[in-house]
Amino acid sequence: VQLQASGGGSVQAGGSLRLTCAASGRRFGAYVMGWFRQEPGNGRELVAAIRWSNDYTYHADSVKGRFTISRDNAKDTVYLQMNSLKPEDTAVYYCAAGSVKNIRVRSEYDYWGRGTLVTVSS
User: Fold this and answer.
1) Do 11 and 17 contact (CB within 8 A), yes or no?
2) What is the biggest distance separating any 2 CA atoms in the chain, rounded to whole angstroms?
3) Contact, 8 vs 26, CB < 8 A?
4) Cα separations in angstroms, 42 against 2, 37, 38
5) Of 35, 50, 91, 118, which one has the greatest count of Cβ atoms within 10 A?
6) Which of 36, 46, 49, 45 is nearest to 95 (CA)?
7) DSSP-assigned letters across all residues of 88-114
8) How far is C-alpha 30 from the chain's CA centre?
């Protein structure tokens, strides 16, 4: 499985970005795909995730109402629409996938893409 993340960049507070994670290598019928982020010196935290089989979604409290995870079945692609961005959203964002049972447990994600940097200035 290969995951290719893109869409990061620099924006001012209040702006928007859309991250894209294109997956290849297998079908994702039983998988969860998620977006994590990591600030320098901190651990990697789950931002949002989607279960491929039933479209169940999870969003961290810190991003609820601002970020939305979605998927495109035909393209095996997951998106993270980020609106009303804040300086505290600045981080490297990673997409991940796996046959996850507990959607919030980072160690259950088997596959990781390279990160994409999001910088939000005040």
Assistant:
1) yes
2) 41
3) no
4) 25, 9, 6
5) 35
6) 36
7) GG-EEEEEEEE--SSTT-GGG--EEPP
8) 18
